[in-house]
Amino acid sequence: MPAGLSVIPARQPPARRSPAMLVLPGGGYEHHAEHEAEPVAEWLASLGIHAFVLRYRVAPHRHPAPLADAKAALAWIRRGSHGLPVDSSRVGVLGFSAGGHLAATLAAGLSAGDDALDLPESRPDLAVLCYPVVSFQASVHQGSINNLLGGSPPGGLLEELSAELTVTGRTPPAFIWHTSDDEAVDVEHSLLYALALRRAAVPAELHIFPHGRHGLGLADGVAGVERWTELCATWLAGHGWCP
């Protein structure tokens, strides 16, 4: 098992092959938000989806360390050596905030600089992005940039890691949600990514809730925003990922 990975099996009969989701908690590439980790995996397991939580490397580690961790974890999940009945054709990624940025770069198929990791099986089949950091050029979340790239990254790298600029027709479908008054990561990040998907004719569902602070996780008890899990479950069902 790759380092930093924990497993929450789907709640279902063991003989059934089910989809799997790699969960990437946020934390500005500085730490991991615990409420965006196992609690989210437990929710996915309740939908019949095997969930794998990755605590990828963060600062002082720099790019491409987190991406390499995520690629290795996704490929390991798809290969099946964990022993769970995973459908290798349905392996996705779900990320929050900076974890959403990592999920989007994983979905883009960006290189981690390692031929052993830069494989088709290291790319997800769909993505769920929750109040994600997307752009390193517009309405930037400077903390994520500093922690991932250091204080003075070259402009070319900022462009390469701006997920809205990496979308192509091969980018997997996405479910995206954000709150309009998020003061930490501007809602523009989700809007830019959704527009990029639309231009590339990639199916996407976007929900912008009017109010809610950054970092809500499952948003239990938060009026309006708490519906995101229900909406996401319906979207996943539409893709054949849960009943």
- Report the biggest beta sheet as strand number plus sense, adding barrel if it closes: 7 strands, mixed
Number of helices: 7
Q: Please give the oligomerization state of what you see.
A: single chain
- Overall shape: it is globular
Q: Supply the number of structural domains.
A: 1
CATH superfamily: Alpha/Beta hydrolase fold, catalytic domain
Taken as a percent bin, the fraction of beta residues is 15-25%
**Rg (CA only):** 16 Å
Mean of residue pLDDT values: 95
How would you characterize this protein structure?
This protein is α/β, with parallel strands linked by helices and 243 residues long. The chain has one domain: 3-Layer(aba) Sandwich (Rossmann fold). The chain has helices at 38-46, 65-79, 98-108, 142-149, 155-160, 188-199, 228-238, and strands at residues 5-8, 18-24, 50-54, 86-96, 127-130, 174-179, 204-209. It is globular and about 50 Å long.
Key structural traits:
243 residues, alpha/beta, Rossmann fold, 30% helix
A few lines on this structure:
The chain is α/β, with parallel strands linked by helices and 243 residues long. The chain contains 7 helices and 7 strands, in the order E-E-H-E-H-E-H-E-H-H-E-H-E-H. The model has no long low-confidence stretch (mean pLDDT 95).
